[in-house]
Amino acid sequence: MRNHEQPQDAQCMPEALVSQVANAAKEAGVGLAGENALPRYDETAHDQVRATAAEKAEEDRMVAFTYLRMGPDLFQPDNWRRFAAFVKRMTETGVRDVSREQVEREAQGVAHATQGVIQEAAVALCN
């Protein structure tokens, strides 16, 4: 969640809150773990998670991230492909220099290869 995505009358600043918690964890000498708060499957949300969790100096990265809200919507083909790309980018941050296009191609392959299993999971979640 980004500050500018929130309604003005809510007077909330999720980015500032995460920064405050991250600074407190660093000062206390403990690792920071996080999770997604909302069921968002778009690249903007995934990019925000990556920027917060993985694209910082190694000592400032989150030690763990839990992806919540794994429901039927996640298993829709486009959402699943984006999720596969998100996971790949999260796990490979700093490991190898790969273009976004290459990650998308690889994620498309994963999405295609797992299509049957994913559809079964979506049906099971709906029942």
TrEMBL record:
Record has Transit peptide as a keyword: no
Gene Ontology molecular function, alphabetical: beta-amylase activity
GO term, biological process aspect, one: polysaccharide catabolic process
Coiled-coil regions listed in the entry: none
Keyword Iron-sulfur attached: no
Domain of life: Eukaryota
EC numbers on record: 3.2.1.2
Catalytic activity: Hydrolysis of (1->4)-alpha-D-glucosidic linkages in polysaccharides so as to remove successive maltose units from the non-reducing ends of the chains
One Pfam match: Glyco_hydro_14
Cited SUPFAM superfamilies: (Trans)glycosidases
Entry keyword set: Carbohydrate metabolism, Glycosidase, Hydrolase, Polysaccharide degradation
Gene3D superfamilies from the UniProt entry: Glycosidases
Family: Belongs to the glycosyl hydrolase 14 family.
Name by which UniProt lists this protein: Beta-amylase
Organism: Aegilops tauschii
